[in-house]
Amino acid sequence: MGRRALPLLPLLLALLAPGAALPAPSASRALHRMRGPSSLAARHAVDKKFSTHYFPQKIDHFGFNLGKTFKQRYLISAKHWKKDGGSILFYTGNEGDIIWFCNNTGFMWDVAEELKAMLVFAEHRYYGESLPFGADSFKDPKHLNFLTSEQALADFAELIKHLRKAIPGTRNQPVIAIGGSYGGMLAAWFRMKYPHMVVGALAASAPIWQFEDMVPCDGFMNIVTTDFRKSGPNCSDSIRKSWDVINHYGSTGTGLNWLSDNLRLCSPLKTPQDLQHLKEWMTETWINLAMVDYPYESDFLQPLPAWPIKEVCQHLKNPNVSDSQLIHGVFQALNVYYNYTGQAKCLNTSETATGNLGSQGWGYQACTEMVMPFCSNGVHDMFEPHTWDLKSYSDECFKQWHVRPRPHWIRTLYGGKNISSHTNIIFSNGDLDPWSGGGVTKDISDTLVAIVIPEGAHHLDLRSNNAFDPLTVLLARSLEVKYMQQWITDFYNSLAKQD
Ligand SMILES: *[C@@H]1O[C@H](CO)[C@@H](O)[C@H](O)[C@H]1NC(C)=O
Ligand SMILES: *[C@@H]1O[C@H](CO)[C@@H](O)[C@H](O)[C@H]1NC(C)=O
Ligand SMILES: *[C@@H]1O[C@H](CO)[C@@H](O)[C@H](O)[C@H]1NC(C)=O
Ligand SMILES: *[C@@H]1O[C@H](CO)[C@@H](O)[C@H](O)[C@H]1NC(C)=O
Ligand SMILES: *[C@@H]1O[C@H](CO)[C@@H](O)[C@H](O)[C@H]1NC(C)=O
Ligand SMILES: *[C@@H]1O[C@H](CO)[C@@H](O)[C@H](O)[C@H]1NC(C)=O
């Protein structure tokens, strides 16, 4: 799916106003000095030790005909948990292996002691090991019928109910939902649908409005472009120009060979479809870079240097060079993303990111509930023009999964922009993150609050503390903790009143 139109965009695989400033080095540098270099090592030492458990979940929470269950995986760390006055931080797993999310959500580990919190990471059905029909889960549309956000939220509710029963001391403790990206959407929606289960939610980089008629379809690609434009002179212009050059080479057999050799592709380009696929792979690469444009060396979607887009732009400084020079620059830019470790023998256009994400599952979700319109015009953004065409999108979905998307359903289900009757949700977004275009970036009420991180890429706030964190993300995290503490205090105060 998606490949034919715009690339399929796994969320993680993913805010700020497009005018956002890039790194404010002075403030953050001052902070590094304050903390000193030793803090980096110390932070990395936070030991992520957890136990792994499985809970039998009904495959279908909403019908009574299918009695079957599957084993949902979840992880627990109780190192800092206190029976007295403690809390439970519950990660609402998204489209991938839950251990990978656990590894990449250092924020929860960093705040566990302060909140006396038990950490729970719940895997989303149809991802990782939590496969309702085992190896057959993706083989038949009938088996996929239970892959919906509603079923996933119901799994979370049942699991919390189970934990409260099974672990003495948790019964009368507040639970907070936390998630990033699609997991952030789930955290927010969980608080909306099950407010009796969680006292609040932290929804990081959660594009709950990236759906039909809620935000302009070109916002996403505009933000990607802005990131490149601000990361180096002529950088976005060079990429914009590269498409024509690629098309030009792609119009002949010798040109295709030349491209395959010079981009050092694992499988040579042979057909116009291959060329299309190459461009979609590149597009996805530039998008992924925008999501993980973190201020320090990291390994989320790929191992990458600090501020990877700046590195990429070192190779794309001048759009007005010869065609072959421009392609050579593009090759070096791709190498920043695909060969930072120096291990790549060739560039594989079948891969754009970590294998920990479940692209099959997300492909299906994008074809059913998660219909996110994207478009580009090649003028305000650096991509080839592309209109959003629901009809062809739907046809692709039908071909692949035998289902047709329901673009309005998420809005019916979760309220679209009309969510002001809910309470206690923090929406955090980074201005560098293309998904921020579909996120909540302004307060909706006193308790539905937006936190914007000007120098943040995709849920930077959920990552571990790092000596190179910009000041803005430190502030965001401390505000998030403040809100969570307030919810916990309110919970215990209202318990006391009931007694
Ligand atoms: C999680 O982190 C551990 C420890 O660094 C590592 O061994 C493991 O491979 C990681 N797992 C995933 C799925 O990221
Ligand atoms: C940007 O491209 C122009 C036109 O080729 C070139 O003159 C200029 O030097 C480039 N800027 C940088 C910073 O390389
Ligand atoms: C590159 O050349 C084109 C046409 O000659 C010109 O319009 C454009 O401004 C140049 N780009 C830069 C960055 O100088
Ligand atoms: C990756 O980097 C290594 C080390 O610089 C280099 O030898 C190798 O050719 C690169 N691979 C590709 C595909 O460019
Ligand atoms: C390219 O990636 C695909 C998908 O991960 C994999 O199956 C294939 O073996 C890879 N090809 C090469 C040459 O590494
Ligand atoms: C919210 O709902 C009201 C009443 O149903 C409607 O008039 C309004 O247009 C909705 N607002 C948004 C932003 O959807």
Automatic annotation (TrEMBL):
Record-level GO cellular component terms: lysosome
Keywords noted in UniProt: Carboxypeptidase, Disulfide bond, Glycoprotein, Hydrolase, Lysosome, Protease, Signal, Zymogen
Enzyme class: hydrolase
Residues making up the signal peptide according to the UniProt record: 1-21
Enzyme Commission numbers on file: 3.4.16.2
Coiled coil residues, start to end: none
Location(s) in or outside the cell: Lysosome
Subunit structure: Homodimer.
Family of the protein in this entry: Belongs to the peptidase S28 family.
The name this protein goes by in its record: Lysosomal Pro-X carboxypeptidase
Annotated source species: Erinaceus europaeus
Lineage, highest ranks first: Eukaryota, Metazoa, Chordata, Craniata, Vertebrata
